[in-house]
Amino acid sequence: MNPLLQKLQPYPFEKLRALFQGIEPRAGLKPISFGIGEPKHPTPPLVRDAVVNALGGLSSYPATIGSEPLRQAIATWVKTRYHLPAVDAATEVLPVSGSREALFALAQTVIDSRSTDPAEPPIVLCPNPFYQIYEGAALLAGAEPYFVNSDPARNFACDYSAVPDAIWARTQLLYVCSPGNPTGAVLTLDDWRELFALSDKHGFVIASDECYSEIYFDEASPPLGGLEAAHTLGRGFERLVMLSSLSKRSNVPGMRSGFVAGDASILKKFLLYRTYHGAALSTVFQTASIAAWQDETHVRDNRAKYLQKFTTVTPMLAEVLDVRLPDAAFYLWANVGRTGLTDTAFAARLYADYNVTVLPGSFLARTAHGTNPGEGFVRIALVADVDECVEGARRIVEFCRQLAQP
């Protein structure tokens, strides 16, 4: 067996199941889950209809490179969304089977684990807290993850200035997540300027995970993307790829449909890897994806639902927890310190007493530089409908007030 598999940690939801083992929630309360970031809004009819109408494609093997119409639809969307002068559908766009698969596979393509000194393997820089795929991808590529802690003073964006130059010199891949999971933080243009300068100096690739980019709260101010930042700063896409997905944008997580865009030379090698990897997107879902990428009405309607939930629920929870509206995405990152409980104790007791599931922040982070930046926080995924989110928030408020009673 591959010995690197022994380095992988249990996924956060495995830890959550272990935390809840033996707990029987209070009878009579319908379960409400804010734990998993799985969209619960209905799939748009235009996507469902496109799937049905494309079922004849099941008789054909899908091409790894994707169909030309799909690549063109994605290229047009990227160009429009990020105000770019041009995106080459033939060389700068590659459909993938969801951003999760691509985030993992990209590290296997990029990392050169050959090292003259085994004590100094290549580095993959990750935000902390983070999406655990980054860590697993790094480890199985023969690299060492290095975690950059989020900074509450910067609305939980990472402080990259704290990374030693010796670490940057060994870095081959940098994962950024903007808007972030779980904090919702969005990188600024100054952040991108700093990262591009470091990439130019040290030669590492930047993988910008932007799967939450279409969930934000001000229609006039969509989150800045990596390709957009590069263009704004007068540079090309060298050593930069962005990854996105229809899962959150269009409420189709079961389609596993996403794309990678950016540096054509990286995408050429990535396509070679994926041709052997065998993760081609179904022709049925390729056709449905075209319909999704070409329509913005359902995306605006989706954002409106999240805006209603966040503007209703956030003030409720702010009465008992330290929490504020994130930059973007569909999570609240709530500090539970006022309750006197740890994040794990908070989650376990809330589940037992009120049948509400939240995810402990410490499960989403690693202890790095003397601290686990997820400790004392819980991630609340506002993915259900408005009424269920409000009811869940009401129970959390009641739970916290009960804890405060002498």
Automatic annotation (TrEMBL):
GO terms for molecular function: pyridoxal phosphate binding; succinyldiaminopimelate transaminase activity. SUPFAM superfamilies: PLP-dependent transferases. PANTHER family: AMINO ACID AMINOTRANSFERASE (PTHR42832), L-GLUTAMINE--4-(METHYLSULFANYL)-2-OXOBUTANOATE AMINOTRANSFERASE (PTHR42832:SF3). It holds the Pfam family Aminotran_1_2. This is Succinyldiaminopimelate aminotransferase. Its cofactor is pyridoxal 5'-phosphate. Residues 32-387 form the Aminotransferase class I/classII large domain. It comes from Caballeronia humi. The keyword Endoplasmic reticulum does not apply. Keywords: Aminotransferase, Transferase. The keyword Transferase applies. CDD domains: AAT_like (cd00609). GO terms for biological process: lysine biosynthetic process via diaminopimelate.
